[in-house]
Design brief:
The chain is of the alpha+beta class. It has helices at about 5-20, 30-40, 45-60, 70-110, and strands at about 115-120, 120-125, 130-135, 140-150, 155-160, 165-170, 185-195, 200, 205-215, 220-225, 230, 240. It folds into two domains: about 5-105, no CATH class; about 115-210, Immunoglobulin-like (Sandwich), CATH 2.60.40.4070.
């Protein structure tokens, strides 16, 4: 059965009834429809339009044949349904606004903490080791990690043997293949692995510190992290104190 709008159906019924009666005869339906049209200029009905229609029907009903109790109750039920729907829509709007504010507050609490960032920059500072992890959901027969500097030059290559199905944790010491300490700056990790007999390029996640938060037009949250990158809050898989 098709979905019917009881308010629209009432308006259409009134229109049809009024048009079938000679214009010289004033009817309840005709008066109600005239009041509705004068009030809105159209036949679509909102809450105030329904009240206009309802009260006009009551004012113009035949005293000798008033609106039946069943019809009166049905109209009140229609109004109650419309009122409940309107209030629900308003409440949902308030709830959404409240949730957006809560998201900003919760995200701001992450400022200063470290998060795991997929394909994020490897930041070398004062020769401190740079931790990272390689996603290996199916394990690997062998893994190779390459380190590139900001100019895209390969500066270091590390290899590892067979790995179980998990995130492979590692730490780069900030040195090139000759053992020379490299300058501070942003570097990039690229992983290659042989998994189930196939060559793959698994995702490498680095640690970055959250330095700011912002909210997009679609209400999604962005985290600004060290290294000049922004990531979605929904993309964060791990948070470290």
């Amino acid at each position: 059965m098709a979905n019917l709008d009881p308010l629209q159906s009432s308006a259409l019924t009134n229109t049809a009834w009024a048009s079938s009666v000679p214009s010289s005869i004033k009817t309840t339906a005709g008066a109600a429809q005239a009041a509705l049209t004068a009030n809105t200029g159209q036949s679509t009905m909102g809450r105030s339009d329904f009240l206009t229609l309802f009260t006009t029907q009551l004012k113009n009903q035949d005293p000798t044949d008033p609106v039946k109790n069943e019809a009166f109750v049905a109209q009140l039920a229609q109004f109650s349904q419309l009122e409940a729907t309107t209030n629900m829509a308003s409440s949902m709007g308030d709830f959404t606004t409240s949730m957006s504010s809560n998201q900003i507050t919760a995200s701001a609490a992450l400022i200063g903490t470290k998060v795991s960032v997929a394909d994020g920059p490897a930041i070398l500072a004062n020769g401190q080791p740079v931790p990272a992890s390689i996603a290996l959901p199916n394990g690997a027969e062998g893994v190779q990690l390459q380190v590139y500097d900001a100019k895209g030059i390969l500066v270091s290559t590390q290899t590892a043997g067979a790995q179980t199905a998990a995130d492979m944790l590692f730490s780069w010491n900030g040195k090139d293949d000759a053992g020379n300490a490299l300058p501070n700056g942003n570097y990039r990790f690229v992983a290659k692995a042989v998994s189930q007999g196939k060559n793959t390029t698994p995702t490498v996640s680095t640690m970055a510190t959250v330095i700011g938060v912002s909210q997009q037009a679609d209400k999604s949250m962005l985290l600004q992290v060290t290294g000049g990158k922004s990531i979605k809050l929904s993309d964060v898989t791990k948070v470290y104190g």
